[in-house]
Amino acid sequence: MTESIMSKAATMEIPINSNGDTGTLPEDDGLEQDLQQVMVSGPNLNETSIVSGGYGGAAEGIIPTSSVKGPAVSYNADFNKRIPVTGLGSNMHHSSSSSSLTPDEMSRGVAVEKLETVKKWGLNTYKCTKQMLSERFGRASRTVDLELEAQIEVLRDTKRKYENVLRLARALTNHFYNMVQTQHALGDTFADLSQKSPELRDEFGYNAETQKLLCKNGETLLGAVNFFVSSINTLVNKTMEDTLMTIKMFESARLEFDAYRSDLEELSLGPRDAVAMARIDDAQQEYQVQKDKYERLRSDVIIKLKFLEENKVTCSRNCLFGDEITQNTSDLFLCSQPELSL
């Protein structure tokens, strides 16, 4: 009977009240064994504590298990003071919000940045338009580089002439291609008639051979003209166009440079109080920026004009080397001159 009671007591659960009081068996060996078995599968720590009522419970609500051998954890009374657990999510959100901007603040910042960009663009456009109109009506001076502007005008005139050559060469290619196709069809027709007309076999055969020879030389000439068109097209629509785009950027930079120069000159002639001096300093900085941009683009234009001239000479020599187009034209129309002169 006594053994039965003892066995039931060993397997009974130990109730813990709201204060963490273990009742009448604080030093029971069965409790120690149960805790030891439970903590074997837990984290590999040195001591453990069972706390009633969460992390914020009182110190007397702790069941000491320092006598348990094996992996365990110990309670640290200062833990709650260092890391507040209550309201963890809200605290983390507040910390994250303090280190980064909210969506409204980010949107507001983007809007302010865009507004500032539009403001600068509007001010720059106003100054450039004012400078352009003042130059047109003779009320403002402009920066002039006579030598460079003469080279730019020569380039534009050369581009117009090369565009005319390109247009004529393309027209020649289209017409000559149709002529070669017609000669090829005519030669086939003469060859067919020479087979079906025994009495005119020699005449039709001679004309068929002549048309085939003309077609062959015509295809050679057509290939030379196509190469010429391709090279001139690259020179006009890529190389020259790229240089002219740089020239347009240079002219825009020149207009901006003169606009900010005129603005600085007007401010320099005005009063010299604190506000005016601050505006003069800002205008001086903007003027220096525009001046550097103008000089950089001027240097780029000079370099591109030099390389363009070299490229133009090289391209023309490659297209017209050995007077290939003229030679092929002679071969085409003089291939059967002795026979045609009869």
Describe this structure in words.
The chain is mostly helical and 342 residues long. It has a domain at 146-323: Substrate Binding Domain Of Dnak, Chain:A, Domain 2, CATH 1.20.1270. 74% of the residues lie in helices and 2% in strands. The chain contains ten helices and two strands. It has helices at 2-11, 29-40, 79-82, 88-99, 103-136, 146-196, 201-268, 274-319, 324-333, 337-341; strands spanning 49-51, 62-64. A two-stranded antiparallel ribbon has the order 1-2. α5 (103-136) packs across α7 and α7 (201-268) runs antiparallel to α9 (324-333). Residues 8-27, 38-75, 79-98 and 336-342 have low confidence and may be disordered.
Fourth CATH level, the homologous superfamily of the domain at 146-323: Arfaptin homology (AH) domain/BAR domain
Count the beta strands.
2
Strand percentage: under 5%
The residue fraction in helices comes out at over 70%
- Overall structural class, as computed from helix and strand content, comes to mainly alpha
> Number of helical segments?
10
Order of strands across the main sheet:
1-2
Protein name: ADP-ribosylation factor interacting protein 2b
Keywords: Coiled coil, Golgi apparatus, Membrane, Phosphoprotein
Region (Disordered): 1-29
Subcellular location: Golgi apparatus membrane; Golgi apparatus, trans-Golgi network
Task: List strands and helices in order, with pairings.
Layout (H helix, E strand, L loop, with lengths): L1 H10 L17 H12 L8 E3 L10 E3 L14 H4 L5 H12 L3 H34 L9 H51 L4 H68 L5 H46 L4 H10 L3 H5 L1
Helix pairs in contact: 5-7, 6-7, 7-8, 7-9
Protein name: ADP-ribosylation factor interacting protein 2b
Pfam family, one: Arfaptin
GO molecular function, one term: protein domain specific binding
